[in-house]
Every structure is written in C-alpha cells, then in structure tokens.
Amino acid sequence: MNHTMIVFWKELREVLRDRRVLFSTIISPLLMTPLLLWGIGMMVRQREESAQKVIIPVAVVAPGGGQELIAVMKDKGFTVHQAQDRSQAEAMLKGRQVRAVIVLDERFDQKLHNESTAQVQVLFDPLSDTSRDALARLRSLADEFNARWLQQRLARRFIGAEFAQPIAVRTQAIQTEHPAGNLILSIFLPYVIVLSAFFGAVSPAFDLVAGEKERGTIETLLATPASRRQIVWGKFLTVTVVCMTAALFAMIGMLVALALPTSSRVFMEQAGSFSISAQAIALLLVTLLPLTVFYSATLTIISTFARNQKEAQTYLIPLSSLIVLPAVASMFVRTESAIWLSAVPVLNSAIIIKQVLTGIVDVPFVLISLLIACVVAAVTLQIATRLFDRETILLSS
Amino acid sequence: MVTASGLSKVFTDRKRGTVLALDEVSFEARPGEVFGILGVNGAGKTTLLRVLGTILSPSAGDATVAGYSIRTHPQQVRQHIGYLTGSTALYGRLTAREVLYYFGALYGMSGNALRQRVDELVETLGMGEFIDGRCDRLSTGQKQRVSIARSIIHNPPVMFLDEPTAGLDVVTSRTIMQFIEESRRRGHTILFSTHIMSEAERLCDRIAVIHRGRIATVGTLDELRARTGERALELVFLQLIGEKEGEE
Question: Which ipTM did the prediction report?
Fold first, then answer.
C-alpha cells in the first residue's frame, strides 16, 4: 500500500476512536440541531398561545364616547380601565398597571357617525413583550372595526363592498419541481453546511500535526521511509474526509430538524415539505469537494505552523471570522447573485448550495465558482505541503 | 556501518541568529559496535542523529548509512535505520499491536511476514499481556518496550538511539540496556547518544565526545583514559570538554 494511504487509514482509525470528533461531527448535528429547533419551536408555540390567551390590561381615555369600541376590546381579551385624562393613563402605563393606553378622539362617536375619521392613538412600551402583543391585538381589532363600519357606511348609500376595493389581488404559487420548504432549506442549509464542515474538522486537524508534535511522535514518523509529502497528504486526506462527514451529518441533522412538526412554528408552514433529488445531492457533493479540500488544507497549515494544539487554537480565532462571515452572508444574499460573488471563497460554495436547493442553477456562476474554489483549494494544499517540508517548523514543539 | 564526513548543520533562529549546531563532524561507526555520542545538553547529539536519520538535512558534508548517502538516498537511509528516542510517546488511541503493524507497513512489510515479525517481537520483549491494549493505558515501561519493538520491526542494520533512557526508572532503563547489548550481539551498528556516564561506560565500544557541535575526540574508553590521565569517565569527559573550551 502507498505510504499516503497507510498514514490515511491509521489516522482515520485514530480519529474514529476520538470521542471529541464523534461528538462534533456525528452526534451533535444529528441530535443537537433537531433538539435545538424542537426547543425553539416549542417556545415559539408557547409564546404564540400565551399571546392569544392572556387578558391584557389597557387604559382608555374616551372623552367623546367610543363605548362600542371599548365593548369590542373587552370581547377581544382586554381589561379596560377608564382613565380621566391622558397623563393619568400614561402614568398607569409607566407604572406597568396597564400594558397600553388608547386615547380616543374628543369627538369619537360624532366623527364615526358623521362619516368622518376618528383618531385613535395607542401608547405602548416597546421594551415590554406584553405591550407589543397588546399593540398587535389592537391593530387587528381596529382592522375588523374599520371593515364593519365601512360596510355599514357603504350600505347606507346603497353601495356594494366592491366600491372600496378597486382591485383584488389573489396569489397562487406555481407547482415547481421543488416544494416551498426548499426555500427554508436554501436559507439555512448552506450556512449550516459551510460552518459544520469547517468546525467539525478542527479537533482532528489540530491533533494530527500539532498534536503529534506536542506528543513527540512526529520524529519517529519522519524517520520512516514515508516522505513528508506522503505523510502530509495522508493527514490532509483524513481531515478532508472528516470535513465531508461533518457536512453530510450537519445536512442530515438539519433535514431531520426541519421535518419536525414544531419547525413550522420557527420558520413557516411549509418548512417540513422539502425534497432533494439525487442529482442535487451529486452537485452538492461536487461543490463540497473543493470547499472541504480548502478547509482541510487551511487547518493543516495552522496545525503544522503551530507548536502545539493550544497555539493552533489561538491562530484559529481570527481565521474563524473569515469562515463565519461568508457563512452568515449566505443567509442574506440572493439565490441569483451577482457574478463577482463567485470569486469569494466559502460564500461561492454556499450560493451554489442555495441554487441547487431551489433549482435555480446559474450555470456560469456555478462553473466559475467551482473553478475558483478548486484553484484556492490547490493553492492552500500546496502551501500546506511546502510548510511540512520546513524542518524548523515541523520539529518545533 | 555509518560514516560521517564533515557534517555541518546551521540553524537560523529568530532570537539567537545563526546557530552552528554541528561543525564538520566526521567519524565512522562499524557493525557490531555501540558507538557512544557523549555530550552535555545542547551539545548537538540530537541534531547529529536527526541529520544522520535524514530528519534534518545537512548544511554541509555528507554521511553514508548502511551504504546510502543521506543527501542522495534519504529514503533508503530511513529504510535501514531504527530510530528510538527517550520519549515513550506512542499513538494513544491505537493498541500496541496496531502501532507495530502501522510502522511495519511504513517499512514496506505486509501479510504473514509482518504478522510473524510482530509475534516474534511480542515474544522476545514480553509484550503478550498488553499487546492488544490501547497505548494510552500502558505503563511507561510497557510503552518503552513497544517503542523498542516499533524501532526494530523491520530488523534494521543500523540503530540510532537518542538518549533512550531519559526519564525512565531503573527497571525500564535496564530493559533498554539489554536491548542494546542484544542488538550489538546481532551485529547491528548502534549510535547511542547519552549524557549519562555510567551508561556510556557500560555499553559503548567507542565514544565520541561532542561539545558545541564539534567532535572533541573519539576513542575507546581506555584510549580516552590514557589521553586524559583520568580513571572515571566523568573526569575524562570534563577534561576533554574543558580542553575544548580552552582551545576556543
């Protein structure tokens, strides 16, 4: 067997026995991601339900009538405290006795019946969740109240409801090859994949070179007939496999998480309805290959340069932002992105993943991105190999 | 057989600038001989063995190991050496057997030949009780026995031993001593670096005293005693490095 493959199989065997790696690449994405989204979904549901059920105290200043509106408010889950004037109501709001203040027009009933517009001012506390809930509920209540009164006013003049609605817009999503849930996937999956592939491989990458220096095993390895190139390639291959595994398990974990019923609370109703074709998976793997080679070579460079694992962790901190920033940006950039984004490492791979998931594949963008990703991967791998040849770096510990 | 001829090694250090770690080192070590390299810490013993083992490249000069030049045939040199240091570090998540199979494979061994060689070493070094245990659970003595087995898995004609007893207890050190004596009986060429005088006195057929990267003198223990007029190797050594410092 080739020396590279001998080193690779040995490193892979060691990595598979490392609990840290198993946790970060397999257990965490398969368990933690679904658990996290399930937990968030439960919290969102609880929040929504409590926002609907809870009776919210409000103060009303009604110098010009408005009993009809107050009755509707009481019916919609508000406890109404009548205040003498605005300053008293505001004091009640600041003292948290009420969660919102509704100041009605001085001639509220008169304007309502005279087909004029009665002003309703709502005061709320932007820092209070319940106050914001009260505002939302009042807006919805006002819409219903307005609709009812508009209908009455139009009926009085023998005018149909169509009068107030010159156009009626109805939307219908076309049936595409990809279900609506793929939109959610295209936002979150690229982010999860590009981050997991990198951070899942940090621990083994640092263990493989910096760890070997630290433990003092590298000298005996260098004294074997295996060349340095063969040794570094064996280690690099191992890290690449871990990167790829971490990305795949992150993807599976995310799909499981989105399929949970509670996920629709976090994202949207269609979150659970998604599909990925075999062709899309093949293209995802092609995209991941240069990305994981780049990651693996970069981590090998750090690991080779550092004297021990602790020092490697120090170098990792500034580098992490170079990976995290494009990963976060991938959630906000459009699927049909400008061609210059194909030149941005990491982000270009994330955009291809977005395109694959939505089925909107921009072929020139994909080709340029893959070409650039391959060039970046080849250059970093070359640097890692050369660094491994530098004896002062390799034997420093 | 190991022959060094004018070997020099220069390091460039950020703090210390240019450091001459080896300065025109020349000697010859023969088969069936334990050739001691005696020197204080930082004298250049480890650098010399690393250069001979092709882990470091020489800045000047050349050496042949088992007939191969360290400059032109580094891979063949590594194929013919066994390299053992005082560090008992092994791969913690592998078993002792897996470590031996790994290094055997790196030396081009496979199949029955490798299996038989591992079994033979397990028997010879008494590793039967722990050969299938993970290395991170072995005692220091057990680890050192695995390290010895690892270094001779391919039955190399030349052994480089860099302070192999450093930090070891008496019992484990004795295992190493016995291993060196056995290797000599088998006709291997052994380069043995140490700063422990009693070990050098007991094991070495000839001794090279190295100081500040230069070989101060080479000879048998009796020749060194005659040269300095001292009996104890410690005094012989101090006089030789003292002379060297006096020359400088």
Answer: 0.91
